[in-house]
Amino acid sequence: MNRTILSGRPVADAETGASDSGKAFAKFRLAHDRRSGADGAEREAMFVNCVAFDGLAESIVGPYVRKGQKLTVAGRLEPDNYDGPDTKYRSFTLVLDEVVLPDRPRSESEQEVEAS
């Protein structure tokens, strides 16, 4: 199973675009604090490249992911297309299938449904 869940803050607003085949994407880099040191008391930042495609990119990541905003993401890790001198992958990208924005502004239709 290849499932990763991380919480953190984007270091910049999400960038949107389309692939050569017209597939929509949105990407950003997530700063995730992890515990380090023998006793786990120290914290160090880990930076993870994240990308979403199609509906998730267009409806959530592109419009709502902003620098410094706390969020939780889930998806699968995929190796980047980079081979080092020892022919091993050097970095990975988290391909998102879920994004949780705790402080995401609600649309008017979402507010109407909740009020009903």
Structure description:
This protein is 16% helix and 47% strand. It has helices spanning 54-64, 108-115; strands at residues 4-10, 15-18, 24-36, 42-53, 71-79, 92-100. It starts with a strand and ends with a helix. The protein has a five-stranded mixed barrel with strand order 1-3-4-6-5. Strand 2 (15-18) and strand 3 form a beta hairpin. The chain contains two helices and six strands, in the order ββββαββα. It has one domain (4-115): Nucleic acid-binding proteins (OB fold (Dihydrolipoamide Acetyltransferase, E2P)), CATH 2.40.50.140. The protein is an alpha+beta fold and 116 residues long.
Layout of SSEs?
Elements: E1 4-10, E2 15-18, E3 24-36, E4 42-53, H1 54-64, E5 71-79, E6 92-100, H2 108-115
Parallel strand pairs: 4-6
Antiparallel strand pairs: 1-3, 1-5, 2-3, 3-4, 5-6
